[in-house]
Amino acid sequence: MGALFRQTGAIRVHSLEELLDTASALYHLPPQMDPRVGVVYGGGGISVASSDAGHRAGLVMASLGPETRQHLAFFLAPSGTSAANPVDVGSPYPPTGLLRDILMTLGESGDIGSIIIDRIVLSVRMRQVLESVGDEAEEGEHLLTQLPLELRKQCGIPVIVVLREGGDLPPSLKWEAERRRLRAYYLKRGIPVYPTVERAMKALGRAVAYFRYQATETGG
After folding, report:
1. Which range of residues forms the domain containing residue 200?
2. pTM, whole model, 2 decimals?
């Protein structure tokens, strides 16, 4: 059976969840054959988990060049962060300008083929729910939420956003409502969204394998 899948380019999934995740990646992502992936996250110790998930999905956790790491280190705090891949910005709430500098540095480096953004709150409203910001004006909402779209447009690489689900407490219900709004916003604009980095890696890995097979078959 495995040989049949390899010969035909069919994508093997093991659940309805995997089917929907893979379909979303194929629908939203451009044909992407580069298995090198970069992850930017806001703390929480996911480095090993994301690296393992990428390896299992057939992806390569890209090694960043010395110049890229040096540029990233310039923007990152000296402690509690990492300029290696996965890139740890140290907090789920980095300032918009700082986050933009980090994403663009990684996206323009040539070291990676795609970027996954995880554990970073990409909405001022979400940050207000979590009381991580004061009662600030929301004119910065658009700039913060637009970062994945700007990254994709400027760097020409696929971008995936991980929006983790909330719980059942009242603050979490507000979080979940905003998460669903953000999810719909990104999907409408061609950015795949997943609730965990593991699911994002699996879907991306299957999409890359499929696009590579298609390119081989068509001589691309």
Report:
1. 35-218
2. 0.90
